[in-house]
Amino acid sequence: MATGGKVAIITGGNAGIGLTVAQRLLTEHPELTLCLACRSKPRAEAARDVLLLSHPKASISIVLVDTSNIKSVYQAAKQLKQMYNHVDYLYLNAGIMKVVGVNWDYFWKNLFSSKFIHMFTTGDGLLKEKEEITEEGLETVFATNVFGHFVLIKELEDILGQNGCPTQLIWTSSSNAVETHFDIDNIQHRNKEGGHYSSSKYSTDVLSIALNIQFNNKGIYSHVTCPGLVMTNLTFGILPSWFWNLILPIFWLLRIFVPTMNYDTYNGSEALVWLSKQQPESLDARCKYVSHCNFWGTRYVHQHKLKIEDKTADNLYQQLVQLEQTFNHK
Ligand SMILES: NC(=O)C1=CN([C@@H]2O[C@H](COP(=O)(O)OP(=O)(O)OC[C@H]3O[C@@H](n4cnc5c(N)ncnc54)[C@H](OP(=O)(O)O)[C@@H]3O)[C@@H](O)[C@H]2O)C=CC1
Ligand SMILES: CC(C)CCC[C@@H](C)[C@H]1CC[C@H]2C3=C(CC[C@]12C)[C@@]1(C)CCC(=O)[C@@H](C)[C@@H]1CC3
């Protein structure tokens, strides 16, 4: 398929899964114009240098954005609108998890139980998290993973789905997005013991459905992906890298039962890159696209149907619009 002149923006494109998506997109779409939307200039420049080593002729720009800071998102959106008159792929990938420890008691208790596969696929119940509030008064994980991205999309609306050229919004969600941690009456997940990351990723799944309802008629399509368990700075924040390296053989064995044990960012980015090669209109907007890798190392994309009601999606969307208005007025 001819891909001349396509534009891709990747939030958090300087590291981990985002950087590998950047690398793979440049290979898949040779004429691609790439924008790394990152919070740190030196880290973004270092990533650009790495990408230029393998793709010396690539057009790669940098826009600074801190998705947890709404003022910064407004500034970045303004800059992006000056740079591009359309966007083909907007990867909403930047994300954090505020982990303070692993619940090992829960781990050992469920290791040989029927919860085994659910535990390794979702990580549900295994992580202890802490709550933090941004200087703008938002719960940090919600602001970074969900709200900052929502504001970015809304601000870029004028250049999305333009001139008969569809825009794909591709979210890096997670299999950790479980409904039990999501409360529609507390979308920021304030004053909770844990489950902030899970709530933010479930919100992502709900929001994606809402965006399809709102914007498909304008040529804007939203899809959620799950990269599985991948070794990045995010997972090195849970357990040290030496530990993960030590248990690498266990990952291979676990893949027999849990094909989301992707380990590396190349495997983990499979669904995110695969989506860029599909006609967005032909995709199921109510599916999560999950990167799988089997025991033999074969990568493939698994489609998982989301059970989310339109009224929940609409409710979340309206709450985000209202929250955004409180910033717009400041
Ligand atoms: N690793 C895994 O197993 C899984 C990861 N994911 C999701 O994948 C996505 C990418 O994470 P991953 O590659 O693993 O982790 P990394 O920590 O390697 O990458 C995260 C990226 O997000 C950026 N980022 C974090 N906070 C902000 C912010 N406030 N503003 C702008 N950029 C920010 C980071 O920038 P900086 O380098 O400056 O910190 C970095 O570029 C996340 O959404 C994560 O939730 C989902 C499922 C599994
Ligand atoms: C495998 C080892 C012997 C023990 C590791 C236990 C846990 C620390 C991991 C087991 C499943 C993992 C997991 C995640 C984090 C680390 C575990 C809990 C995630 C929650 C990381 C972020 C995500 O988005 C999820 C998709 C991961 C799901 C699995």
TrEMBL record:
It catalyses: 17beta-estradiol + NADP(+) = estrone + NADPH + H(+); 5alpha-cholest-8-en-3-one + NADPH + H(+) = 5alpha-cholest-8-en-3beta-ol + NADP(+); zymosterone + NADPH + H(+) = zymosterol + NADP(+); 4alpha-methyl-5alpha-cholest-7-en-3beta-ol + NADP(+) = 4alpha-methyl-5alpha-cholest-7-en-3-one + NADPH + H(+). It is found in: Endoplasmic reticulum membrane. The keyword NAD applies. Pfam families: adh_short. InterPro entries: 3KSR/17beta-HSD (IPR052834), NAD(P)-bd_dom_sf (IPR036291), SDR_fam (IPR002347). Pathway: Steroid biosynthesis; estrogen biosynthesis; Steroid biosynthesis; zymosterol biosynthesis; zymosterol from lanosterol: step 5/6. The chain crosses the membrane at residues 234-254. It is a single-pass membrane protein. Keywords: Endoplasmic reticulum, Glycoprotein, Lipid biosynthesis, Lipid metabolism, Membrane, NAD, NADP, Oxidoreductase, Steroid biosynthesis, Transmembrane, Transmembrane helix. Its EC number is 1.1.1.210, 1.1.1.270. It comes from the Eukaryota. Coiled coil: none annotated. GO terms for cellular component: endoplasmic reticulum membrane. Binds to the short form of prolactin receptor. Belongs to the short-chain dehydrogenases/reductases (SDR) family. ERG27 subfamily. This is 3-keto-steroid reductase/17-beta-hydroxysteroid dehydrogenase 7.
